[in-house]
Amino acid sequence: MRRFEVSLRRRTNLTILNDDIRVERAARYMSFLRDLEPTIDLEQTVLMDETAVYFEDARQTTLNFTGARHVVIRSNGLASMRITVVLRELLMKWIDRAFSRVVHGDGKCLVWVSMRAHILQIMKAKGSARKVAMCVVPGGIMLYLQAGGIGIYKSFKDLLYMWINTWKESDQAEYTRFGNPRMPSVDTVCEWVLRAWRDTEEATIMRSVKAAVFV
Q1: For 13-27, how does the pLDDT look when each residue is reduced to its tens digit (9 = 90+)?
Q2: Which site in 5, 25, 37, 125 is 20 to 30 Å from 61, CA atoms measured?
Q3: Among residues 143, 97, 88, 144, which one has the least CA distance to residue 121?
Q4: Tens digits of per-residue pLDDT, 124-182?
């Protein structure tokens, strides 16, 4: 790469918090966890998060000329495809499934990030009604304090992209008459997700949960 004056570069249009803000948010979060710990039961604690998955590899690095000030990762048209959306009604149903109504013990806790749908007043009321304490990871520090961001998603998405790339290179991928790719069926995507999650090593999951101080 040096011969052609190129190097591995990161995309430049990402918004990044400075170190002081990250440290301050992390310190407040850890202080909150210490106060919460005596009141929760780890056996009834759920670490939950949604993560975006694209039909093309959405990594943040690419080859570009050394010294270039603006680095762009090109898309083949699959990156903008969407098949899911998370709404508050869906989250409320999910809470009922994650925390069975027949479990009446104390100490239930839900840990998730500060996505707008998570912190709505109606969601707080739902948690209060079900006696589920809600622990919100502050924005901008998920990669450091949320189990998924620490290590689980990297392994999971690497496995998932293997299935996506196999699909793109096969005769199962369909295109419109204008040459634009068609989305795979929801059933197909669900099968990919299921296989990738089953193949994610338990040791990776446990290391990430432990790093998030929930073991």
Answers
A1: 555 678 888 889 999
A2: 25
A3: 88
A4: 999 999 999 999 999 888 888 899 989 999 899 899 989 988 888 888 888 888 877 78
Amino acid identity for residue 143 in this structure:
L
Exposed e or buried b per residue across 113-151, where buried means at least 16 C-beta atoms within 10 angstroms of its C-beta: beeebbeeeebeebbeebebbbbbbbebbbebbbbbbbb
- Three-state secondary structure of 89-144: HHHHHHHHHHCCCCCCCCCCEEEEECCHHHCCHHHHHHHHHCCCEEEEECCCCHHH
- Mention every residue, 6+ apart, whose C-beta is less than 8 A from residue 168: 55, 56, 78, 181
Q: Taking residues 190-201, what's their average pLDDT?
A: 94
| CA atoms within 13 A of residue 204's CA, in its CB half-sphere | 16
The model's pTM: 0.75
Q: Are 176 and 81 in contact (CB under 8 A)?
A: no
CATH class of 8-62+69-211: alpha beta
> Which residue bears the tokens 């998405």?
157
Nearest to 90 by CA among 113, 118, 66, 130: 118
Taking only the tens place, the pLDDT of each residue in 92-109 is 999 999 888 656 678 999
Identify the three-state secondary structure at position 6: strand
**pLDDT band for position 203 (50/70/90)?**
very high
